[in-house]
Design a protein that fits this description.
InterPro entries: TF_GCR1-like. The chain has 5 helices and no strands. The protein is mostly helical. The protein has one domain. The relative contact order is 0.12.
Length: 97
């Protein structure tokens, strides 16, 4: 099999040519739809949930990653910003249980 045929077969099946290379995080990362509290939202934003990267990490290392879920992202960002502004007014860091 020629290199061209092999490359086309690999590309068409969406399997990385090198199995040790995983898909790019920005192509697979999704905001959790199971977040129901501000505490969980803040945790997802700062630490990550379920073994996923944090939203802050994604914002820093993969700008624009949220383009397919922009309105969902922007609503959550508004809540996070309000929490951070509240903490500044209260002169202290947020304490999430």
């Amino acid at each position: 099999m020629s290199n061209t045929t092999q490359r086309n077969t690999t590309e068409s099946s969406n399997v990385p040519a090198n199995p040790s290379i995983s898909r790019h995080p920005s192509s697979t990362f999704r905001l959790s739809t199971g977040v129901y509290t501000v505490t969980d939202l803040y945790r997802e934003w700062k630490e990550g949930l379920g073994g996923n990267h944090s939203v802050e990490f994604m914002n820093t290392s993969h700008p624009g990653w949220y383009s397919s879920q922009k309105s969902f992202y922007m609503r959550r960002r508004k809540i996070i910003k309000a929490c951070e502004e509240y903490a500044v007014r209260k002169d202290g860091p947020l304490k999430m249980l």
